[in-house]
Write a structure and sequence with these properties.
The protein has 292 residues and is of the alpha/beta class. The chain has two domains: 88 residues, no CATH class; 184 residues, 3-Layer(aba) Sandwich (Rossmann fold), CATH 3.40.50.300. Helices cover 46% and strands 14% of the residues. The chain is built from 13 helices and seven strands. The chain has a seven-stranded mixed sheet, with helices on both faces. A hairpin with a 2-residue loop joins β3 and β4. α4 packs across α13. The radius of gyration is 20 Å and the shape is globular. The protein starts with 9 loop residues before the first helix and ends with a helix.
Length: 292
């Protein structure tokens, strides 16, 4: 994890500074430098001493790859989402993209992971991001952010409360619209009405980008209406698990619903499959830059 990109979690940064100072009093503290924790963590000599002192047991923010991954693998994780963010930004220069649905063909393929981390990648560069949990069957974003699944998207969809009342400020430049307390029997039917497109437009008017989590479309096809109403769709596949047949079926359904498919994100790729380039990049560029 590159701590210089963690300004959105000031509590974590403050705790890290305090922990470093208490664990290694001889540490050369430079409080005036905003990248001081990163410079220490990435320094090879200090890394060994920090791990010996219990550094490996610290609770790293989950959205940055988890505490058990070595720094080079955390780099793969974070840079992958920054690369995806840049790709979307370049596409959006020529096309009007303010609302994106993140979906997959089957369950447990990593949709929510992509929504969360892509949202963080945009928020860290100053974009106002709204993440909306449109997985009506199995909402998870509120748990990932540690907040209650209060009245949210469902209530706004049924016009039971203003959209602003459903938005929760969870990070710098990031707001969450949870699914809502419960799903009504006719909620899925509402997705097929003009209200879906109207709600997406309302969300886009409150931020720079809206990222919607989704139910798996091969299992629960109602979100195809949401896909058709969004400006773009990203399809998520799980490495070693999603079949080419299911991926093709999901794409065909999305295209048939009038959705613009930006591309496919392959989730949970083994680090060994992609680490060669990033390991060289980390060793030759990131670590050297952090120790200057």
């Amino acid at each position: 994890m590159d701590l210089r990109y963690s300004e959105s979690d000031e509590t974590f940064r403050a705790e890290l500074r305090a922990w470093l100072a208490a664990t290694l009093p001889e540490l050369p503290a430079e409080p005036a430098r905003d990248d001081w924790p990163a410079r220490v963590v990435y320094d090879t000599d200090w890394q060994k001493r920090l791990y010996e002192a219990g550094y490996a047991g610290m609770s790293w923010p989950k959205e940055y790859g988890g505490r058990d991954a070595p720094p080079s693998e955390q780099l793969i994780f974070t840079e992958a989402f920054r690369t995806l963010r840049v790709t979307i930004q370049l596409t959006a220069r020529n096309e009007h993209i303010r609302t994106i649905l993140i979906t997959s063909g089957g369950a447990h393929e990593g949709k929510s992971t992509v929504v969360m981390n892509l949202g963080l990648a945009f928020s860290e560069v100053g974009r106002r991001v709204i993440v909306a949990d449109a997985d009506l069957q199995r909402p998870t974003l509120h748990r990932a952010l540690g907040v209650a699944n209060q009245r949210g998207l469902v209530e706004a969809l049924h016009s039971e409360q203003p959209l602003e009342s459903s938005m929760m400020h969870v990070r710098d430049n990031m707001w969450l619209i949870p699914r809502g307390e419960r799903v009504y029997p006719h909620t899925r039917g509402v997705l097929s009405t003009e209200r879906t497109g109207t709600l997406l437009t309302e969300m886009a008017d409150h931020g720079d980008l809206v990222l919607c989590d989704s139910s798996p479309i091969l299992l629960i096809p109602d979100n195809l209406f949401l896909a058709g109403a969004a400006d773009a769709v990203i399809l998520v596949a799980k490495a070693g698990d999603t079949s080419c047949r299911d991926l093709a079926r999901a794409k065909d359904l999305l295209v048939g619903a009038g959705a613009k498919v930006l591309g496919v994100v392959i989730n949970e790729m083994p680090p060994s499959a992609v680490s060669g380039y990033y390991k060289r990049y980390y060793d030759s560029y990131v670590k050297k830059a952090a120790t200057k």
